[in-house]
Amino acid sequence: KADKRNVDTAARKALTLLLSICVPGLYLILVALDSMDYVRTFRKKEDLRGRLFWVALDLLDILDIQANLWEPHKTGVPMWAEGLMFFYCYILLLILPCVSLSEISMQGEHIAPQKMMLYPVLSLVTINVVTIFIRAINMLLFQDSRVSTIFIGKNIIAIATKACTFIEYQKQVKNFPENVIALELQQNSIAHNQTVHSTQSGQHNQTPTREIVDT
User: What is the span of the domain harbouring residue 157?
Assistant: First the structure.
């Protein structure tokens, strides 16, 4: 029985490891940041990569709550509480990556990481605040010793940083006139059109040489 229990525990930990690699990895593959040719500046690409890292960290946070339910053989959490936590975590795993992907795709070629505030606000409420209460209830009320205090610290840091980001964004929106935003978009479109015309002119310049060679 002891050997069977050890094998079962190892299998559950292997499942947790597999999910913690595949779920954030699938999200990063779907984003395909390195394939975005229109993100040319290094600063913008690194800003996007930092935001993607926060999304992957949030997914690991959700998986950690689920792992606390399926890894141990016996927990002090009631069955109805386990069901609610499983349902809540699966809903977040389905919705939040889709929200982040749709927010990135809606930006298009004029992507601006500092303007993407939908996912940070949504994850601030649904992950960073709610999971603190879930872990605190499991630790204090149900005396669960497997609660990850490291992720509680991560949630507190995330709440502080996202709150500061949201405050700075509100100040930037108030102090940043709409004419400057329109001018920035116009400059980006002009630069994009120039690159398109340059590639087309390069193709036209190559066609006469091909005709001469053919003759």
Answer: 148-191
Measured CA to CA, the distance from residue 79 to residue 50 in angstroms comes to 38
Tell me: do 133 and 187 sit in the same domain: no
- Please tell me the pTM assigned to this model: 0.73
| Cα R_g (the chain), whole angstroms | 24
Q: Which residue has the higher pLDDT, 177 or 45?
A: 45
Name the residue with tokens 């930006």: 107
Same domain, 43 and 82: no
C-beta of residue 119 within 8 angstroms of C-beta of residue 55: yes
Distance of CA 185 to CAs 66, 118, 171, 190, Å? 43, 21, 20, 9
Residue 109: predicted pLDDT: 60
pLDDT (average), residues 8-28: 87
Determine, yes or no, domain membership for 112: no
For residue range 138-147, what is the model confidence (pLDDT) as tens digits?
888 877 777 8
* Residues 176 and 158 both lie in one domain: yes
